[in-house]
Specification:
8-stranded mixed sheet, 386 residues, single chain, Spore Coat Polysaccharide Biosynthesis Protein SpsA, Chain A, multifunctional enzyme, 60s Ribosomal Protein L30, Chain: A, alpha/beta, EC 2.7.7.60, EC 4.6.1.12, metal ion binding, metal-binding
């Protein structure tokens, strides 16, 4: 049994404000339509996804894989019918079920889509629709004055996606004489029974400018956060300075290594790789490769940062601890913060560089070398909820 999803995205949405229709406006780093489509793309039970666009928008939308496009009409009802007719072009491939969804409901969860589809498959009516019971007091008003009260018993706030037997809703739309508030109205006008299923308060429809902020809060709570930990050690040898977190710190000895032995940058680099489960410096820059001999450590760190950005992660904050008796780190910490900020793009006030001793214990206590540990938090704000 096949299922199609019809995403209605032909409206102009003038009440939402902005220079472009609301479905093309940005929201938490993406467009409204992108959030909506992803909720359906990840549901394996959906075989086809069709987006109904306004004629002016068709040239500006590059559909992702598995997404088809057709052109809508002058009203929402006309656009839905156009989408249904598009799906019906080849009777042999027409779906058994269709979910009809408003593109402006971009906070829909994939799990909610699945529950509506399951309800449709098990319902004794040819249609199901999610709704939330009205719990607020309802007034009747005129001229900015309350003129009466409305009983809220049995009242619901309708949502989408609304699910239908495809043949039944297609016939209902073909028979409907004009516009309708939604597809449940069309279905009921044709005598189809509609089962109410549980809605979701987060499944709001963006209508006014303030709705973008609420949708952003809902979507922004669903983030992929990764914590990475890095640790590195380098021994002392001949030299007159140590490279530490991008700063040449004067000292009577230097740190030894295949590169410039910046123990702080190495620990941070490994922390970023580790947060993404992408190994360590040695995997990306093998010490057996002579081209990296004497390399500046910012090359490694920048590579890790670019990998994070490529994978849509933002570095939220960094915490580095250098473990040594000497040299003294605190006087150079602000310069280290600035140097790390220049490489990573993270604001200096989100970068902590501090030091501790090992109380004269171990190799650091014997001043044989320096150790460093780093912790980093990566955040991806565009993962799909639910």
């Amino acid at each position: 049994m096949t299922t199609a999803a019809l995403i209605v995205a032909a409206g102009r949405g003038t009440r939402a404000g902005g220079d472009t229709p609301k479905q093309w406006q940005p929201l938490v780093g993406r467009r409204v339509i992108d959030w909506t489509l992803d909720a359906f793309l990840v549901v394996p039970e959906i075989d086809r996804i069709v987006v109904v666009l306004h004629p002016d928008d068709a040239a500006h939308f590059a559909p992702p894989p598995r997404v088809e496009v057709t052109i809508g009409g002058a009203t929402r009802t006309a656009s839905v019918r156009g989408g249904l007719e598009y799906l019906a072009q080849c009777p042999d491939s027409a779906p058994a079920h269709v979910l009809i969804h408003d593109v402006a409901r971009c906070c829909i969860k994939p799990s909610h889509v699945v529950s509506i589809l399951r309800a449709l498959e098990g319902a004794d009516t040819p249609a199901v629709a999610p709704a939330v019971a009205v719990t607020d007091a309802l007034w009747v008003g005129a001229a900015d004055r309350v003129s009466g009260a409305q009983d809220r018993s049995g009242l619901f706030r309708a949502q989408t996606p609304q699910g239908f037997d495809f043949a039944a809703i297609l016939a209902a739309h073909r028979a409907h004489p004009g516009a309708a508030a939604d597809d449940v109205e069309v279905a009921r006008a044709a005598g189809l029974g509609v089962t109410i299923v549980e809605g979701d308060d987060d499944n709001l429809k963006i209508t006014y400018p303030a709705d973008f902020a609420r949708a952003g809060r809902i979507l922004g709570h669903h983030m992929d956060t990764r914590i990475g930990f890095g640790f590195d050690v380098h021994r002392f040898g001949p030299g007159n300075h140590c490279m530490l977190c991008g700063v040449a710190v004067p000292h009577n000895r230097g740190l030894q290594g295949h590169s410039d032995a910046d123990v702080g940058m190495h620990a941070l680099t490994d922390a970023i790789y580790g947060a993404m489960a992408m190994g360590d410096i040695g995997r990306h820059f093998p010490p057996t490769d002579p081209q990296w001999k004497g390399a500046r450590s910012h090359v490694f760190l920048r590579h890790a940062v670019n990998l994070a950005l490529t994978n849509a992660f933002t570095i939220n904050n960094v915490d580095i601890t250098l473990i040594c008796e000497h040299p003294k780190i605190t006087p150079h910490a602000p310069a280290m913060q600035s140097a790390l900020s220049a490489v990573t793009g993270v604001a200096p006030n989100r970068i902590s560089v501090k030091a501790t001793t090992s109380e004269r214990l171990g190799f650091t206590g014997r001043e044989e070398g320096i150790a460093a540990q780093a912790v980093v938090l990566l955040v991806k704000k565009c993962t799909l909820p639910g």
